[in-house]
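Key result, reporting period 2: structure in, sequence out.
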């Protein structure tokens, strides 16, 4: 928009002038720019003689008003909601524009009339800018001038704000207030005399502390005397903070906002009244032969003024309607078609049409009517095109393209200045990307069809359009003949006059300035195009339009080439040349021209490395041959370079290449140590007619156990011209080559395999190199990279490819004396990667003595036999590891005493124990070697996996490692499970007596308390799969709580039905068959340490079982948990024992009920015996028994049963007389038992 007058197109805001502040302001009016003679001569001068306000308050006021200035805000309704004015600071003296122009000087005709005694005609004076005023630039038939907009936007304010100081000295306050009144009255008088509706606002700023009542009186007095209302006089204390100053400024602007809007509304009413008269005003002086402005022209003026005043009020809808009316009037038959093309008024009318169209676009963008704005833009372009074709020199010239560039830039600037929300709102699904275009504001169900280019696009779209127009402008300008580009001073006046109308110069330069014939600087097309492209690229980048960005960068590069900026062109072209997207899309034609341009730039700046890279790629058949390009890499001139040599590394995976290397293995089925045939083919995809490529060497790197392979150039006397040529290459280890032969710096001291072949490749030829390699280790084997090397003079080139995943490998066979291609596999990477299988080892590993099942806590010895069935001596290295599902479930170590390092190398948290590898030395063919592992501390019943790995080398092939492994499962289960039965027994020992004092030793820990005795039975069940011999079984106490000691006896076997009393010959050792249960009995006694201790005793017990297998003498120990025994040592109880007392043929049994009182209380028990149909008894049917503390007594009954070999129930009721508690009868020996309900039975 810089081609138009600034005041013509800027958005109009209410103008506020600040007077009386002495602070720097960059927005001060520049008289040389904002003033004009017509706006100053005869103006109304306002002068304020009061001192300027200085200090922090003045600075804060100015900053606050500056913050409220809306000049820099976007041209959109959302931006000016809070700030809607334009603020300027002026000096103490200011001249308002004159309302009427001065009378013109008397003409000779009028002077003669006065001399004859006739009165002079009355003159009608008008505005200095009116077409009716002779001194106006529009006189007599001009339509509009930007000076009118300048007058209202920069010279004629809607509010004049003056700042005066209110003194705080009471001695001089009255005098100073009178001066203030005089200053205000003087300024108000000047404004009133102008008939302008400018509002005078006075702001009083205190210079000290003033009493509030006095302040109110003084301000009221000043307001009344100066004739100001409450919204025209304000006061600001001298000590106001920045926040208070900011709030004060907001309140002042809010108060005067309505009057400012009314000011411009009154101006609109005035213009509307003039338009309604529908007559042409009378000019001050009638023009001679010229015609005055017609009525349609006056209506255009009025409509344009109404639109501008509506913009001042921010009523953009009303402004848009006025502009549209004015626009149609301009293109009416009475205006544009009646103005002579050669007249300056024609270009003034075109300029006004552009400005009205521009302001219409801004109004539409302001109200979010982007699609309508684009249509309006297109309509104006089409109408101007029609006008130019009808009235001027047509559109096939540089002036029309200049206007098109300007008009496209207008749309870009409008979108940028308006910050159009639909184009500047970030897309939610992307990261910081903006929309490319905005959708139409019309309803979706509208029947009107939406054309894509009628939608509002971002600024880059329009700038690209402007760039194309500028390029077309340059093209048309270069076609101007030299005689038409001569400056006026060098051509006769008649020739200049005759050619003045040949070219349209609207908004552009004359031909002699556009493109001077003398070679001097004219219009800088390249600079304009480059600046436009840079800005456009930025906008396209913010929308993520990468392809468009690349195209525009290409345009920039071509422009740089046109200006011979070679290095800058290279910077732009190199990313495009390397563009992956262009290569993937197959844009080879475009890349070809970029490559040629880059090569030309590289040659001009002598960039040898870049030139070499470009020649390598441009030699490929995907590009066409350039006749002026030398494709010989050896012909590059490096003499001008300071460096001795140039090293060039090319990645063939990211670049096209004239040589395509392919590598393939002959088979997938290969074992370690077996020779493997490989082929490396070089397909020459070079342009026909270009010189051959002579490689110095080829390097092949592998992933796996193969050494790097080098093919070194050795010229062959018999050159072949066949399309395909197969060469057998014999590889040699680098260590066997002599120093004079192996001079390749690339191999260094790394162990490699080297072969020699002719590496001279002709265009269209395929050379196949076949050789053999020997894998030395098992595993995946693949080709990692292939590097083609050229060393010619100062050139050192290395082209490498390492991506073989997408390549289809080929295999060449000799048929009929010539190579024939055979596909190895249609899938990608078919034979580029193979899996080398280990050579089948003949070493055998056996585990002869392993059991199917092992048991917890058993020491396991796993024996392995290693048998060498190879024909050569073998050097063995043995590795072992044990894998357990639970960490710490067992321990493993080598069993042999010779393997002294028994510590595991690694014990991971995952339960894997790795033992240190053991070197077994060399064993002969057919010889055996035995190794053993010990597995101990197997505390958990889980399955373990033991893996034995034997790595060995044969004497005749020490480089090949053979691997033999054997895995065995070691299943560990629990050997036993037991349940337990605790039965109390009568302790026959005498209880302590109160009449006997025991012999005690203070330092002795002898137990002196009461003793309880129990018979414990363990029912042991075998889970073993083989018979188990129990050698010993013990019941042990691991923890005793309650102040007692515990003792147990060794377990003895209880055979089924054995109820006899145990003696010294009781059986201890026993064999338990699989799934068999064996009973073991134990005597358990518990004695309190202190007599009278009433605490309950808790005992944690464990069953220790010593067992062995029948075929082994090694005894293992298994520990089983036993339920905790809780003994209430202070509770009374009743224990029953039975003994037979036969008399003759009568079967008589004696029942002894022992009542115990271990407490320190006197207890009385009510005893009663229940009768039974199974026996007769003698004894007390009921009785009362009293027991003293720490005593016991026996109640005896004799019974005679009427049945035999049976269990009969006996029920003696024993009730505590005090507590009412019934005591349970406990079995005290053999022949007595109780059931779950507590019923007592005896065996008779």
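The corresponding designed sequence is given below.
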């Amino acid at each position: 928009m810089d081609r138009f007058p600034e005041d013509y197109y800027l958005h109009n805001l209410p103008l506020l002038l600040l007077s009386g502040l002495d602070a720097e302001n960059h927005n001060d009016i520049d008289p040389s720019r904002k003033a004009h003679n017509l706006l100053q001569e005869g103006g109304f001068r306002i002068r304020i003689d009061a001192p300027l306000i200085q200090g922090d308050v003045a600075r804060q006021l100015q900053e606050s008003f500056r913050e409220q200035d809306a000049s820099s805000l976007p041209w959109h309704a959302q931006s000016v909601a809070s700030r809607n004015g334009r603020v300027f600071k002026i000096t103490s003296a200011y001249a308002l524009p004159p309302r009427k122009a001065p009378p013109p000087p008397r003409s000779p005709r009028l002077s003669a009339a006065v001399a004859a005694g006739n009165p002079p005609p009355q003159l009608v004076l008008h505005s200095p800018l009116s077409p009716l005023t002779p001194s106006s630039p529009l006189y007599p038939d001009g339509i509009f001038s930007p000076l009118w907009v300048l007058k209202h936007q920069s010279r004629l304010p809607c509010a004049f704000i003056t700042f005066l100081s209110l003194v705080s000295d009471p001695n001089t306050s009255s005098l100073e207030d009178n001066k203030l009144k005089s200053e205000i009255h003087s300024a108000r008088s000047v404004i009133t005399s102008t008939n302008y509706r400018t509002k005078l606002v006075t702001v009083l700023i205190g210079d000290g502390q003033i009493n509030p009542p006095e302040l109110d009186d003084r301000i009221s007095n000043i307001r009344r005397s100066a004739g100001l209302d409450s919204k025209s006089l304000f006061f600001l204390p001298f000590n106001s903070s920045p926040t208070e100053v900011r709030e004060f400024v907001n309140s002042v602007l809010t108060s005067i906002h309505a009057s400012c809007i009314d000011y411009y509304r009154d101006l609109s009413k005035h213009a509307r009244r003039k338009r309604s008269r529908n007559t042409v005003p009378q000019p001050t002086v009638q023009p001679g032969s010229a015609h005055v402005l017609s009525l349609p022209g006056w209506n255009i003026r009025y409509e344009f003024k109404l639109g501008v005043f509506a913009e001042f009020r921010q009523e953009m809808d009303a402004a848009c309607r006025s502009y549209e009316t004015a626009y149609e009037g301009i293109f009416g038959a009475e205006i544009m078609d009646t103005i002579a093309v050669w007249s300056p008024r024609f270009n003034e009318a075109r300029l006004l049409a552009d400005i009205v169209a521009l302001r219409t676009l801004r109004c539409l963008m302001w109200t979010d009517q982007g699609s309508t704005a684009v249509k309006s833009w297109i309509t104006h372009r089409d109408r101007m095109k029609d006008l130019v074709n009808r009235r001027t020199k047509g559109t096939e010239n540089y002036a029309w393209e200049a206007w098109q560039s300007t008009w496209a830039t207008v749309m870009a600037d409008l979108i940028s200045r308006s910050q159009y929300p639909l184009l500047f709102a970030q897309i939610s699904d992307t990261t910081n990307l903006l929309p490319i275009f905005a959708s139409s504001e019309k309803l979706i169900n509208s029947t009107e069809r939406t054309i894509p280019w009628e939608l509002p696009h971002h600024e880059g779209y329009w700038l690209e359009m402007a760039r194309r127009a500028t390029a077309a402008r340059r093209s048309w300008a270069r076609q101007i003949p030299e005689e038409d580009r001569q400056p006026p001073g060098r051509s006769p006046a008649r020739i200049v006059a005759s050619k003045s109308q040949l070219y349209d110069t609207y908004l552009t330069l004359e031909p002699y300035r556009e493109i001077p014939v003398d070679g001097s600087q004219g219009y800088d097309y390249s600079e304009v195009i480059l600046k436009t492209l840079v800005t456009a690229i930025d906008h396209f980048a913010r929308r993520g339009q990468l392809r468009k960005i690349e195209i525009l960068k290409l345009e920039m590069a071509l422009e740089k080439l046109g200006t011979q900026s070679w290095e800058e062109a290279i910077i732009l072209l190199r990313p495009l040349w390397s563009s992956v997207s262009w290569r993937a899309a197959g844009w080879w034609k475009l890349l070809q021209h970029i490559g040629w341009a880059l090569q030309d730039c590289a040659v001009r700046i002598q960039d040898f490395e870049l030139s070499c890279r470009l020649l390598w790629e441009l030699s490929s058949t995907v590009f066409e041959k350039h006749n002026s390009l030398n494709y010989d890499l050896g012909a590059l001139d490096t003499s001008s370079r300071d460096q001795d040599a140039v090293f060039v590394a090319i990645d063939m995976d990211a670049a096209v290449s004239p040589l395509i290397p392919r590598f393939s293995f002959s088979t997938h089925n290969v074992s370690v140590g077996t020779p493997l045939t490989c082929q490396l083919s070089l397909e020459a995809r070079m342009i026909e007619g270009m010189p051959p490529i002579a490689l110095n060497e080829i390097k092949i790197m592998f992933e796996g156990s193969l050494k790097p392979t080098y093919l070194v150039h050795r010229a062959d006397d018999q050159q072949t011209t066949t399309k395909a040529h197969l060469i057998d290459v014999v590889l040699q280890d680098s260590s066997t080559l002599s120093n004079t032969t192996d001079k390749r710096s690339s191999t260094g001291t790394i162990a490699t395999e080297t072969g020699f072949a002719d590496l001279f490749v002709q265009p269209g030829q395929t050379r196949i190199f076949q050789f053999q390699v020997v894998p030395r280790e098992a595993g995946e084997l693949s080709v990692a990279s292939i590097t083609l090397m050229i060393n010619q003079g100062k050139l050192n080139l290395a082209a490498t490819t390492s991506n073989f995943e997408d390549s289809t490998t080929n295999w060449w066979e000799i048929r009929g004396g010539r190579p024939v291609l055979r596909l190895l596999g249609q899938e990608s990477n078919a034979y580029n990667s193979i899996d080398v299988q280990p050579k089948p080892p003949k070493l055998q590993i056996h585990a002869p003595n392993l059991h199917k099942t092992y048991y917890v806590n058993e020491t396991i010895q796993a024996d392995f036999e290693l048998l060498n069935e190879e024909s050569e001596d073998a050097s063995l290295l043995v590795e072992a590891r044990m894998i357990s599902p639970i960490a710490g479930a067992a321990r493993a170590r080598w069993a042999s005493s010779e393997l002294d390092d028994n510590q595991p190398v690694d014990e991971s948290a995952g339960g894997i124990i790795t033992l240190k590898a053991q070197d077994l030395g060399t064993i002969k063919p057919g010889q055996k070697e035995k190794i053993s592992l010990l597995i101990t501390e197997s505390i958990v019943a889980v399955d373990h996996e033991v893996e034995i790995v034997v790595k060995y080398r044969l004497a005749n092939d020490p480089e090949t490692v053979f691997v033999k492994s054997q895995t065995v499962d070691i299943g560990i289960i629990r050997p036993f499970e037991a349940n337990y039965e605790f039965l109390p027994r009568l302790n026959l020992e005498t209880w302590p007596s109160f009449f006997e004092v025991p012999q005690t030793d203070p330092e002795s820990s002898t137990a002196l308390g009461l003793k309880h005795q129990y018979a414990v039975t363990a029912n042991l069940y075998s889970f073993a799969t083989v018979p188990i011999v129990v050698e010993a079984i013990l019941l042990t106490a691991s923890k005793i709580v309650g102040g007692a000691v515990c003792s147990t006896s060794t377990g003895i076997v209880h055979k089924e039905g054995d109820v006899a009393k145990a003696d010294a010959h009781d059986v201890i050792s026993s064999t338990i068959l699989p799934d068999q249960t064996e009973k073991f009995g134990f005597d358990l006694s518990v004695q309190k340490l202190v007599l009278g201790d009433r605490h309950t005793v808790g005992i944690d017990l464990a069953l220790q079982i010593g067992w062995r297998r029948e075929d082994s003498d090694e005894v293992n120990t298994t520990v089983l948990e036993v339920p905790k025994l809780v003994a209430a040592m202070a509770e009374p109880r009743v224990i029953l024992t039975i003994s037979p007392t036969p008399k003759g043929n009568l079967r008589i049994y004696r029942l002894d009920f022992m009542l115990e009182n271990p407490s320190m209380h006197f207890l009385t028990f009510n005893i009663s015996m229940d009768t039974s149909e199974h026996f007769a008894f003698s004894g007390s049917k009921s009785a009362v028994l009293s027991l003293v503390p720490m005593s016991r007594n026996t109640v005896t009954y004799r019974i005679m049963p009427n049945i035999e070999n049976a269990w009969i129930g006996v029920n003696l009721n024993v009730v505590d007389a005090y507590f009412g508690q019934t005591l349970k009868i406990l079995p005290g020996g053999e022949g007595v038992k109780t059931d779950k309900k507590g019923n007592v039975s005896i065996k008779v």
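Residues 1059 and 1230 are 7 Å apart (CA to CA). Confidence is low (pLDDT under 50) at residues 740-748, 1057-1065. This case is discussed further under Risks and Mitigation.
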